[in-house]
Every structure is written in structure tokens, then in C-alpha cells.
Amino acid sequence: MAFIELNNIVKVFKDKKRKDKNSGGDMLAIDNVTLSLGKKEFLCLLGPSGCGKSTLLNMIAGFEHPTSGSVTVDGKPITGPGADRGMVFQQANLMPWLPVWDNIAFSLKLQGKSAAERRAAAQPFIETVKLKGFENHFPAELSGGMAQRVGIARALLQNPSVILMDEPFAALDAQTKMEMQEELVTLWQRYEGTIVFVTHSVDEALVLATKVAVMTHRPGRIRDLIDIDLARPRDTTTAEFNQYKRHVLSLIREESALAHADAIKLAA
Ligand SMILES: Nc1ncnc2c1ncn2[C@@H]1O[C@H](COP(=O)(O)OP(=O)(O)OP(=O)(O)O)[C@@H](O)[C@H]1O
Q1: Residue 84 dihedral angles phi and psi, to the nearest 5°
Q2: Residues framing ligand 1 (Cβ under 6 A)
Q3: Assembly ipTM
Q4: Cα dihedral 16, 263, 66, 42 sign
Q5: Are 108 and 157 in contact (CB under 8 A)?
Q6: What percent of the chain has pLDDT over 70?
Q7: DSSP secondary-structure letter at 51?
Q8: What's the predicted TM-score (pTM) here?
């Protein structure tokens, strides 16, 4: 049964700064996206810049609302943010004055839990994301990868049934990125929920996902929804991996070319 459902999602943004005056300032960002995801699915959203990946993710998070259509998670319509959906951003956005453990337990602080309760609740997640020994460090004392681990632990602590990740590894160096991808897959294999992950990287999507949704150039639609049937851990050098990569890259190239042509038209 579907766990996350996007039903005929349309999103129009009011954008008075756009050049094409015929639009009356309306910009169709998402055009009729319908998508069903089972529990324990790992979906990666791929597509050219501006195709609406983050907008879709933010609608599942409840930060954005569709102009028409609906989003449901576990049968419940999404009307706003909730603890059942954890979010991890490109920048970890940690509280610089709080140590690692208290950043992880930040939601409990908001609920008025004592320091001892927060410290105890944070500990298993510190271990999950391999930050043992860094509990008392402050964000300024962490590497980019460590800060992202804190962000992931902070999302996990709320025991969400969905984790939404918006390019969480984009700012990391190549080696750290690979390690974080491996760790995330291990974590997901133990996790009972669903992950929706936005990325620009075809390799990253193919290493992580059970399904990859390739979106069209604006307005965003689902161009192809591909089941990734590759054994784990995934080897990026195999013929099977590269077959998927060729297919996805050809779609992305077509969509990026359309985006480029539109940009030239708009500038003319
Ligand atoms: N609050 C907003 N107001 C007006 N337009 C917006 C708003 N948020 C997003 N948009 C527009 O909607 C479109 C989709 O944006 P979105 O950030 O979802 O794309 P994206 O695929 O995540 O892009 P990128 O890969 O560059 O991060 C873009 O044209 C963007 O300018």
C-alpha cells in the first residue's frame, strides 16, 4: 500500500519579477505530479536546476502547499510540518552555542525536557551517526561531514516515518560524500521509514535509491520513474550500474538542453 502519495500536484508561484509578462506574474513550477511510494522506499529526485525538486520535497514536509492536488503520508493529508517528517538540509543549520548532544536533542528542548532527559535521549543517535567522543563539541569544532551527521541524528531523534533530505551531501568533499552515502544506506537498511532525497548527482541517486524520479525542465513533471534493481553495496563501475547511468544521463541532458533553450528565449 502507498505510504506517501502525491496526487495531481500543481504549484503556481506568484513571481512579479519574471520577464514573460503574458503569464501575469504566475509561474507554473510543478505541473500535475502524481507519485506513490511504499514504506521503506528510498526515492531520489533528480532533474535540471529549477525543475521543482525542492518544492516537491517542501510540500511533503508541509512547508509549501500545492496550488491544487494533495499530499498524504500514511493516509493523512499534509497541512503543515509535523514530527512524523524529519528534514535534513544542505547546511546542517546547527545552533552554534549548543554542544552536539543538545543540537541533536533540540526538539526535546522545545518540549521543555530536562538536560538529563535530553542527554540520555541523544546518546543512541550519537552512536548511530558515529559521533561518539564528540558529544560535547560545538558546531564550530566539527567538519562538514560531522555537522551533517548531527543534522541527520537530530532528524532521527524525532522517530519520523519519513526523512526528507535536500542535497545534504552537496557541500562535502568527494571522499566524505562517499562515506556519508554508505552510512546513509546502512542507516536506511535498519530504518523502518521512507527517505526522499533531492540530488543533482546521477551517481549519488543510483548509489542510494530504490527509485529515481527524473523530473522535466520547468514546469516540473515526472519524466521517468525508474526502479533501481542493483545489489548493495552498489559498485559504480559495473556494466549494470552504467546502463542505468546512461539512461538517466540521456534524460537529464535532454531536459537541461530544453532549460537552456528556454533561458535564451527569455533573455531575448
Ligand atoms: N517561494 C517562491 N516564490 C517564487 N518562485 C519560487 C519560490 N520557490 C521556488 N520558486 C521557483 O520554482 C521553481 C522550482 O524551484 P525549486 O527550488 O523547487 O527547484 P529545484 O529543482 O530544487 O532547483 P535547484 O536544483 O536549483 O535547487 C524555480 O523556478 C524557482 O525559481
Answers
A1: -75, -10
A2: 13, 15, 27, 29, 47, 49-55, 218
A3: 0.97
A4: negative
A5: yes
A6: 97
A7: S
A8: 0.93
